[in-house]
Amino acid sequence: MAKIVRVRFKSFGKAYDFDSGAFVLSCGDHVIVETEQDLCFGTVAAPPALRDERLSARPLKKVFRLANEKDFKQREKNLEKEKSARAFCIKCVNELKLKMNLFVVESSFDGSKLTFFFTAEGRVDFRQLVKMLVNQLGVRIEMRQVGIRNQAKMTGGIGRCGRPVCCSLFMNAFEPVSIRMAKDQNLSLNPTKISGLCGRLMCCLAYEYETYRELKKRFPKIGKIVKTASGKGKVMRHNVIRNRLTIQMDEGREIELALDDIIT
Prior knowledge:
Layout: E1 3-8, E2 15-19, E3 30-35, E4 38-50, E5 63-66, H1 69-96, E6 101-107, E7 113-119, H2 127-137, E8 140-145, H3 148-155, H4 166-169, H5 179-184, H6 191-194, H7 209-216, E9 225-228, E10 231-239, E11 244-249, E12 254-258
Parallel strand pairs: 7-8
Antiparallel strand pairs: 1-2, 1-4, 3-4, 3-5, 6-7, 9-10, 10-11, 11-12
Helix pairs in contact: 1-2
């Protein structure tokens, strides 16, 4: 049975599964792995574990070899190249007065290609920019426009929960998130409290949404008139987690009751 190992390409970010082959690996080991973009330098995030072929028949790329001193030097060289290329590109963008926000540059492991990631409100004609980059850097150039959420995923950061943002840590794809999810969970609708680093609604709003929906099916709807031991009243608020609800009585005062205290 094949073994899989989890490899991360950035200090924090999503870890990917690879076939570890016959290599004996531990967390923190540096390896060269095969990817769709050729060979890449990565760090073992989780030691090899047996792979159940019945659960996943998806073929995995392999660990090519352990990183050596030459690989570390190449990695340092690539980091310096990315840094200088980013500075030069920003200079060119300002000269050409292009309306784009360059946020990261990534080099292929062999240094033959540089990919420039940027965000922009609309389409950008970067043909002249590419010519300037090729003339200065002498490598293949790729310009890639991404959305603001992808920018957060690629650059990473710390969310308001104090943990690395979910999109860069483990998420494979972005799921739709709506303001309804915040409303149904009785969360503050203040945009600064329910928005992530990207300025969009936080992805974690969707994590418990289905649970809240299921729990709320037991509750009478907001505005419904219900009977209690103290008389009739109107449902004003739900507290799903505590299994309680707030009732406004006929005389205007509000009381909080357990759901089981409602007379059906």
